[in-house]
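All the exercises in this workshop are built on plain-text protein records. The record below serves as our worked example for the rest of this section.
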Amino acid sequence: MQRGLLFVIFYILVFSLNAQTRNYLLYTDENISRLKDQIKTDESIEKNWDNQYKKAKKLLKKDRLKSTDGLLLGLVFRVTGEEKYANKLKELLLYYGTKKTWEGGTLLKRNPPWKGGLGTSHTSYDIAMGFDAIYQYLTGSERKKIAQSIVDLGIAPAREDWLELTTNMHTFDTMGHNWWSACVYMSGLASLAVRSEIPEATKWAKEVENSAIEWMNYTGSILQNKPPTFDKDGGFYESLNYASYATSQYLLFLTAYKNAWPDESTYESPLLDNIGNFFINTTYYVKGKNDLAVNFGDSGIDANGDRILKLLWNLGYQKDEYAWYINKTTNKESRYWKSAEALALNPNLPTLNTDYVPKGSKSHLYKDMGWATLRNSWEDNKTMLAVKSGFTWNHAHADAGSYILFHNGKNLIIDSGGASYLSPLYTEFYCQSEAHNVVFFDGKAQNRNDPYFGSVNSGSLHNLVEGEGFKYLLANATGPYSHILARNYRNFIWVGDVILVIDDLLAFEPGQFEWLLHYNGESNLKGGIDLKIKDEDAKIRVRPLFPETFPPGGERPHDFPEHMRLTEKIGHEDHHPEESKPYWSISHFEKTTRTKFVSAIILETEENKNKLPIITREEGKDYLKVTITQNGETSVVYFNLLADGRLKHRNSLINIEGWETDAYLTVLKFDENADKTDINTVNEVFIGHGSYLRRNGQVLLHSLSKYTALVENFGKQPNLIFQGQPNATVTIYNPENIKSLQLNEVLKKGIYDNSNKTIQLQIRNNK
């Protein structure tokens, strides 16, 4: 009898000790302690907490609560210790345990039924978090009962649909690439919550953690035209909204896993070092207002990575640029800021210098998924160009070669956005090419089935080059247009306050080429050759240069049929399909098989409003020439028409005004009044897909293979940005004897040839 009593006492003591030392998932002692301190010291946190606390008080008076209410009740209980919140949360947990399913009726009607979809996922998170928050408050029998309901209604359906060997019917790309993360990782988080009551839960959670290496490194499907989940640099092709959603589900699970089992090892993906920067690079920073986002695909212009960077910070990925981003972008009116999760995970950030901006490149290419952003500054209200030429499928629209532009705090050249998935216009307009700034031929662009079935041949982006005052990017949209076009290349050259957009187009038979321009604000063509776009103080001009300009002086198109034609078309407002929104079509004046659209986007600023860049155009034999003069500098852009694929078995040799080259594009920068025939007055050289540049027998640049390169400070102390084959020998003109130069940001030694006045570099693996 006495021995039995001692055993019972020992069991109770052991159980109590385990309960006391059980680690919380997100509402940890450390997080709660930090929040209490922040409430005392941070006025915005105090205000947020007071509002949440008032909301929690109101929940006590309601008869039926939503599962999401449990997140707040659990946090308030953890912070205050007031049992009335725990008791109300217990009622909620017990009530949800009586339901027949946590999944929505729509998915359950499918054949076979989908029992573990997003409804199950979201509810599993809510209930598991609520259970974890009041774990100490519950009796042993209550814990067992609630834990079993979490298994029956949350974990088991998800595992049956997504994980179990004998029953699963989904894979990494079912319903896009975000459903896996939501459905599987929330089942894992729920498994962590019930680990003390359900013996199998530990194994389940570890299985889910082990799946991360496969999900994050999913390579796509050739037969079904589905892309990889992540770009190697941390981008997520489905849009910023879905990047935030999918990544957050994994990071929430990973955070809970590490908190529950701090001594357990986890998969440390290299992607986690880059995911935060994806949001930094795709955000446009606005002074005094909410920041804007690159809204390609099914995303909002207000998409935000605040949640992701805070989760990363809590996981130990703590960088100065993350702190900078969180401080700049946290929207204190957003739904996330007003959530219990945001309060619990809000980090203490280091104090940065007031002039801090991220280090490194201002522009970034996500080559695997075909996104790029180019900006002239990290400061607020500057200019950012975003380009997409990648995958089309599901949340990624038919927008190969499209671009958008942010300037002076506004999104002026826009993506049309999206609409509810229930709206017919989502499929008929928003997903289709006409909703984007792309090329059309005879009224056609990408196949209209691409958003559903995907494109066999995806678009791509190449050769992002960024100098001090020069940027270049090449978009290849030929693949998605291969049913109507043999060439669809779009080049972007950004010099000072001018962005040249150069379309290199070839069809199989004569037809009508046009390109579309979607905009915000007001736009008109009055009394000149510039299409003006204005939204409050933000202004740009769009000027077609080739094959022709708009009719001069505002003349009637009827009298100038050989000039470009401007037509207004009607689309739909972003997320408001019931509202019409005009956009422009700029079309060729005749039907043709081959053309080059060259247009200039002129950025109006406070500094240049009385002295805009001077742009001239000239067409020579086998070449196009654009000259841009601004701020005492002149940039001359040559487009070699012989390099557009029309020659077979011959190199595209050309002599343009004395400059001998085989390059597709050549850009030379001079002082404004310099002699532009003298190689010693050249300040900067850009070669786009060429092997040499010579004048009067003097080599300026040379390699045996074609490359794309920018040489800044040419002829003095050169800085070479080189993109070519991994192994190349490059020769550069320099009148003075030098032993080394900067190559791709690294000092590289070379061999100087006095007789030819050149320095030769051996490049191995682009180094």
Summary: The chain has three domains: 22-345, 360-605, 613-767.
